[in-house]
Protein 1
Amino acid sequence: MDHFKIESIQTDNILPPKFKLRSDIGDLKELKASVIAKGLLQPLVVRPIKDKFEVVAGHRRFVVLKELGWKTIPVNIVDVDDKTALELSLTENIQRQSLDPIDEARAFKLYILEKEYGAASELAERISKSPSFITARTRLLGLPEELLTRVKTRRLGVSHAEEIARLMSKEKGEKQVEQAKELAEQVEKTGLRVEHVAKAVTAIKQGLPVSHAVEFATSFPEFTNYPKKSPERYNVIEVSRERILLTLQQALNKIDDALRYLSDTEAQVWIKRVRYPLHELIGEAQKVQKEQSK
């Protein structure tokens, strides 16, 4: 890529970018006020296209300068192909954190799938992000439109949305869409943490209804072996047994934590009269569960 010195060119000779990464140019009032007060702090990046120049980076600045009536604009001219132009535009916007997550996801999809410029690993290297970041972002596009709107309006956090998106397959089945919407509602109403959403998604994929999966994730955050899905339908009896056993185990853990604050004599009483019988009960529950699961 060849770089040239910064120079001023006629505004009428500058074209909008080929790759418009934003679905909405956004509110330009603050940027316009800054340009009026301080001038243009950073030149546009443009590339030669026939007898004109095309914006590579700085689309919003270009729009503001045109609205303000600038006749010439300082630019940095770079001679690059489409692939590099898209990489430069993405890099600048990500560094400035000026794209919303959905626009980022669509730009990544454009690069990887539509233009086939390279794999997620190559794009990640170009924009100084991890491949997992690229994958998680593009997965968002599998969500129903209603949830994409919530992410754009910040009603649903992007990290929460990335976890919920793991529920979706390429086919976007009706059941998956409803599960995603229901889990998003739970996030909005109860303020579920991202790690709880991740565990709930795993449980849902293994066959639990959304409400039960959320209960497991929040009540037993250390529990990862969620009851498996029945070959024919959700097995209520199996999950009920699992919940009972987990409740007993949680009670035993809390007793052990509390025993630290008792005197030796008091602790011995609790161990003999409460903890030991509870431990025995858990053993019996595990035995019954194992027998009835055969």
Protein 2
Amino acid sequence: MTRYTVADIDAPVLRSIQADQTIAEALDRMFETGCPQLGVTRDGELTGIISHRDITRVLHLSSQINQDGAILEKSVIMAVNRSYERVSPKDGLFELFDELADAPYVIISDDETRKILRDVGLHQFLQDEIKEFLLIEEIERIIRDIIRDTIGDALPNELGETFSPLDVRTPGRLEECSFRHYSIFISDQWNAFDSQFEHKQDFVRELIDRVGEIRNQMFHFRDLDDRETYDSDFIEFAREHLAYIYNERVEH
């Protein structure tokens, strides 16, 4: 994930309102633009953020002193939230974690625009970006479980016998295997796996090899701008297919 910068996040542009405008005008502006937060500026400089939550808080407090109606005509400064941090689009993505730990908002600013980000936006971005990573980790766990349950205690010896004669690194345990290792090992030990993989040796080998190729592209950050290279549908299919095979084996 170290390749990502703040610029990779599709954060919304921060629309603004002048500091001498009223809370009622801020609400109107929010409804017009559909923006839940507005920047509050004075002489072009950002002085804080105002949001639905900030206005609700001020209205709640003012109702306790019978000023809830009048408060809407007061300056937005009464409701402004000055707790925010600034970052550059060129900053590393994980710097945002530190900033959002200290403030509810992060302003992404350069010479031309200001954008705003809350922690929920960062979390959604990360969830979208690592979905395929998590699926591939689950696929690898399922493959290891299938191999471990099928071969049993003989696994270390069988790994050695399979890979020692080959021009391939010989793993001492499954955790040292790559997807290429899994593919070679299952093919070499096919008599043990034949029935549970429904006699489809070529299909299983190609399935595992393809997941391995996608995994290498992702983890080595090749072709990352072309998300279709990852073929998310294929990863989903591979996980579902292997999970079905494993669950069928466990149940029987």
